[in-house]
Amino acid sequence: EYTVSVEGNASIEIPGLPVGTHVINATLLADGLDDAVVNDTVNITVADDHEVTVVANANETISYGKNLTVEIGQIISSGLEKVVTGNATIYIYDGDDSTVEPVIAFPCNVGEDGVAVDFKGLSVGNYMMIVDFDSADGYYAGQATTYATVKQAKSSIVIKPIGEVTYGNDVTIEYTVLN
């Protein structure tokens, strides 16, 4: 609570309001000259002009069939050096064109230590991941971009020595996918 006595017109400065929305009540009390009490209320939003740093990393290269892991690191507000939490959406694009529909749009919660998300079933190719972040208090937002490549899985064919095979019998051939 903040109280100030003034005469006539006045401008009042309230220092140190934290980021957020504040309700300010102004009241003119009866003072012998004015018998009416006048109240006025205004909502003031204190925004933060500090940016946040969003860092996102993905496995640079994986083999087909493996999970792609996207890690969003701890998010820090620059200037205030404050850890910020909130929600992010990870958009995964086939190639590096973010003007097309993403292959995946995955919402996640980013805590004080960040978050890691695994994605399965991506096809062979190059991918761009864009992370859009909005803080829980609504005053911080940021974005990060990272890239990954899904390569074809290595494979091999092994034919075991079988010696003689009698006509009409089976020959065994083993095929292995190496991830």
3D structure, described in words:
The chain is an all-beta fold and 179 residues long. 0% of the residues lie in helices and 51% in strands. The chain is built from no helices and 15 strands. The strands form five sheets. Strands 5-13-12-9-10 form a five-stranded mixed beta sheet, with no helix packed on it. Strands 3-7-8 form a three-stranded antiparallel beta sheet, with no helix packed on it. A hairpin with a 4-residue loop joins strand 7 (75-77) and strand 8 (82-84).
Concise synopsis of the structure shown:
This protein is mainly beta and 179 residues long. It is built from no helices and 15 strands.
Strand and helix layout:
Elements: E1 20-28, E2 38-46, E3 52-53, E4 56-58, E5 61-63, E6 68-72, E7 75-77, E8 82-84, E9 86-94, E10 104-110, E11 115-119, E12 125-135, E13 141-151, E14 154-159, E15 173-178
Parallel strand pairs: 5-13
Antiparallel strand pairs: 1-2, 3-7, 4-6, 6-11, 7-8, 9-10, 9-12, 12-13, 14-15
